[in-house]
Amino acid sequence: MLKKPYVRKLDQIEDISVWIVDGNYVRKNLDEEFTNFGQHYRFRFIPRHEFWIDQEHGAGEQQFFIDHLLVEYRLMASGVTYDKALAEADAVEQKERRKAELIRRIEALNKQGIIDEIHKTLIKKYSGRVKVWIVRGELVRSLFFIDFTEGGHDKVYHFIPENEVWLDDDLSRQEMKFVLLHELHERHLMDQGWPYYKAHRSASKIEYHCRHHPEQLEEALLVEKRKNG
């Protein structure tokens, strides 16, 4: 029997309960596509009057996520498609993010200055020709792409410098290696000419396998590091 993923209750907004949940547990046991947050009309395993927000390990973004979920939930409950609801919710969230003093300061920097602010820690063990960076995910979402979650690489995101893989600092250390495995595997396949959707599907399979067979994770990571050079 699966345990419940709840960590603590964060807020109550009229009839909606906002819960902090164990995202690692959700991704391993319910849906690996669950990212920073979700609501019932996007993920049917979430009860109708609940918002789920993954427990944070980086900067506090919970209020941004709640703003997003309120819009997305209301629109989808009225019959709007997920894609349209997502676009409107993203716009509201982005507007709120732009008000932050930190974002206004960093936007004044040149491109390399912005990248330097985003870079946090170089993971030397898994870096070769391709560098693996832990990055400030909040800055990436606020400055470049609001739906950036978990990780990414230069073959998908134009704002990531060439030959780099980025890992969101909001990830727990427990999950970071699984996401890195996904990104390195996906990046190598795309570098070989695979389209994103096929590379992503292949990466999701190997990530899912290692989440359930963690004793194979380290060897798989080193294999993918060698493939990327």
Provide structural commentary.
This protein is α/β, with parallel strands linked by helices. It has 2 domains: 6-97, no CATH class; 110-228, no CATH class. The chain has helices spanning 23-29, 62-77, 82-97, 101-107, 111-118, 137-143, 173-191, 196-212, 217-228; strands at 6-13, 16-21, 37-39, 50-54, 119-122, 131-135, 151-153, 164-168. The strands form 2 sheets. Strands 1-2-4-3 form a 4-stranded mixed β-sheet. A 4-stranded mixed β-sheet has the order 5-6-8-7. A hairpin with a 2-residue loop joins strand 1 and strand 2. Helix 7 (173-191) runs antiparallel to helix 8. The N and C termini lie far apart (43 Å).
> How would you sum up the major sheet?
4 strands, mixed
Uncertain segments of ≥5 residues (pLDDT<50)? Answer: none
Order of strands in the sheet with most strands: 1-2-4-3
Work out the radius of gyration. 18 Å
**Number of structurally distinct domains:** 2
Strand percent estimate: 15-25%
